[in-house]
Amino acid sequence: MRRVDPVQLDFTAQDIDGILTAIRSSLSTGQLAQGEQVAAFEAEFAACTGARNAVAVASGTAALVCGLRAIAGQQEGEVLVAANTFYASAAAPLLAGLRTRLVDVDAATFAPSVADLDAALTSETIGVMLVHTGGIISPATPEIAQWCDRHGLWLLEDCAHAHGSRMGGQHAGTFGAAGAFSFFATKVITSAEGGMVITDDDELAQRLRVHRNLGKPELWRSYHTVLGENARMSELHAAVGRAQLARLDEFVATRARLARRYTSALAELPAVSPVLPDHDPASWYKYIVLLDPHVDRRALKAALAERGVRLGGEVYELPLHRQPVFAERLPAGEFPVSEQVCGRHVCLPLHTGMGDDDVDFVVAQLARTSAEMSR
Ligand SMILES: Cc1ncc(COP(=O)(O)O)c(C=O)c1O
């Protein structure tokens, strides 16, 4: 039976040869951390995003935690985070010794509007973490950055989904103080595990380097000035990340072509409404569609899987205020739009191993299944 999977890694034989050569060199020289691979990955990532600095870390979560520690310094207080995002975005302030306050979002962008932020602002607020869900940069982002400036707050962008996403020529992660990326295996590009923080602020970048290195300003001297952690990226991971970064433009172009095909085919399908970026290029990390309220998501996913179409995870299935871990840890609130978007969307398969015929197959199965379910 024909089968379309939600995600797929993309390494050519040539990519693998290049990675193995780099890894062989690291293993034979013994330079396994903070060597030439990490330095090159940082320089290449900074050049790609247009940021002055890029600091490699061990994961996207580490990018958020180190980013928050380096930005907030001695500050105490609350960080505003969307209620419809990933666990790590809301956990990071808590792990960094701060507090998290959830905010509701706009269904058109899956991100908070200025009005949502205004409604959540308290005298305790010190910053905003803006997540570019699915790779969509909300058109409100520049206005949100100005709103933060007006209120004396900083803006940290969670760009775990947004490698290659640009709005008005500006890369995700460059609208605020810093941007945090993940290179987990499902992401647009991967280093197996890994993350990166970008910033134009040289002093902030230096604080980030200290925080990722167990709080040591000097790389190999055991002299610790801040409460840091070991969040370094290894040379081996950097070698994998570099091979993927070299192909980012190609990956984004392929994803955009598949996404365009979805968008034109889905225009004919009444049961689903795509959630589309308003900027180009977008990373197209996820192709998000809102389902009509009468469609049972779980039943739809099960029926599609029977027909060879495996949908991946949602972004996200359960709003954060419903996650058991946060029950006692976050201020209570109501997040009706987050509830609605979390409960009603699915993400269609989208990866660089797919062809146009796979998109057509997914749309045909979706049309057939949703028609049967609305009878
Ligand atoms: C929005 C978001 N933020 C943060 C993370 C954390 O990244 P990592 O898994 O690399 O720690 C992820 C993904 O996994 C994510 O999707």
Written account of the structure:
The chain is an alpha/beta fold. The protein folds into 2 domains: 13-245, 3-Layer(aba) Sandwich (Aspartate Aminotransferase, domain 2); 248-373, Aspartate Aminotransferase, domain 1 (Alpha-Beta Complex), CATH 3.90.1150.10. 39% of the residues lie in helices and 14% in strands. It has helices at 13-29, 36-49, 60-72, 87-95, 114-120, 141-150, 202-212, 235-245, 248-266, 297-306, 336-344, 356-373; strands at 53-57, 78-82, 99-103, 125-131, 154-158, 166-167, 170-171, 178-182, 195-199, 272-275, 287-291, 345-348. A hairpin with a 2-residue loop joins strand 6 (166-167) and strand 7. 49% of the residues are buried. The protein binds pyridoxal-5'-phosphate (PLP). Pyridoxal-5'-phosphate (PLP) binds at residues 59-61, 85-86, 88-89, 131, 158, 160-161, 182, 184, 195.
In a few lines, what is going on in this structure?
With 375 residues, the chain is an alpha/beta fold. Helices cover 39% and strands 14% of the residues. It folds into two domains: 13-245, 3-Layer(aba) Sandwich (Aspartate Aminotransferase, domain 2), CATH 3.40.640.10; 248-373, Aspartate Aminotransferase, domain 1 (Alpha-Beta Complex), CATH 3.90.1150.
Largest sheet descriptor: 7 strands, mixed
Number of strands: 12
Oligomeric category: single chain
Bound molecules: pyridoxal-5'-phosphate
Class computed from helices, strands and strand pairing: alpha/beta
CATH topology of the largest domain: Aspartate Aminotransferase, domain 2
What's the overall geometry?
A: globular
- Percent of residues in helical segments? 25-40%
The CATH superfamily label of the largest domain reads: Type I PLP-dependent aspartate aminotransferase-like (Major domain)
